[in-house]
Design a protein that fits this description.
245 residues; alpha/beta; 7-stranded parallel beta sheet; 46% helix; 13% strand; globular
Length: 245
């Protein structure tokens, strides 16, 4: 491990969506502080702020007090360049999947560029992330475990991720990339524009086919990791068909 460096990962956001147990928020803050993560975003948390959360934080009060509460997941993701969704189960739509080790490798490569931030999303205790929430992600992160019994508490999942992120980012170095990834905001604007164009040419049969097709297109563009200039090229093509409103 390199010496003389304060490993605080200010470019990594931990996003908890619709958390129902305040104690899990406190436990997550504790896990984060142990591994030098400080940016906690809470989307519509239930019963928060809470004395239970503060007690479970066990001294990580600063992470709790600095936590940003958002009304929507889109709000929590603004300004990020890589969005990762944590999930313990397989989905019908094949999002790009990586285990926690491969995910941390990807995070490290992304944050070598100064202005790029990463968000890692954790869903509800009962059902995890919805397909609609996963549509906003570029990577589906899985944590391997016992296939006969896998019931990982959300705070425990955050602890595993935070530990692996710390280990990976303090022992591995990458050269800084010269090309910046398109941000979450830029990609969402592109997807909105693409949807408008496809509606304009009457490509969708109905709303159901629209949802499925746009999900598959998101998966496609996620795999190629579009850069800012590449998204600009696509937007230029789309504007020749229909201007963006």
């Amino acid at each position: 491990m390199k010496k003389g460096i304060n490993y605080t990962f200010d470019k990594v956001r931990v996003v908890m969506v619709n958390t129902t147990e305040p104690g899990n928020i406190g436990a997550a803050a504790r896990a984060m502080k142990n591994m030098n993560l400080s940016k906690l975003y809470l989307v519509n948390p239930k019963g928060y702020p809470s004395a239970t959360a503060t007690a479970r934080a066990s001294g990580a009060d600063d992470v709790l007090s600095d936590a940003i509460v958002c009304e929507s997941l889109e709000e929590a993701l603004k300004g990020t360049h890589l969005v990762i969704g944590a999930s313990a189960r397989q989905r019908n739509i094949k999002w790009r999947q990586m285990d926690v080790i491969g995910t941390c490798n990807k995070i490290q490569k992304t944050i070598t560029i100064d202005s790029q931030e990463v968000a890692v999303i954790f869903g509800t205790e009962k059902s995890g992330l919805t397909n609609k929430e996963l549509d906003l992600c570029q990577i589906l992160m899985t944590i391997p475990g016992n296939p006969d019994y896998f019931s990982l508490n959300v705070a425990s999942a955050i602890q595993i991720f935070a530990y692996q992120n710390y280990i990976y980012n303090t022992t591995t170095e990458f050269k800084e990339s010269v090309s910046k990834l398109a941000s979450f905001d830029e990609l969402e604007s592109f997807y909105t524009h693409l949807t408008q164009v496809l509606e304009h040419i009457e490509y969708f049969r109905d709303k159901y086919s629209q949802v499925l097709l746009m999900r598959r297109l998101r998966c496609f563009f996620t795999k190629v990791e579009p850069k800012i200039e590449e998204v600009s090229i696509f937007r230029g093509i789309l504007k020749k068909i229909k201007p963006f409103n």
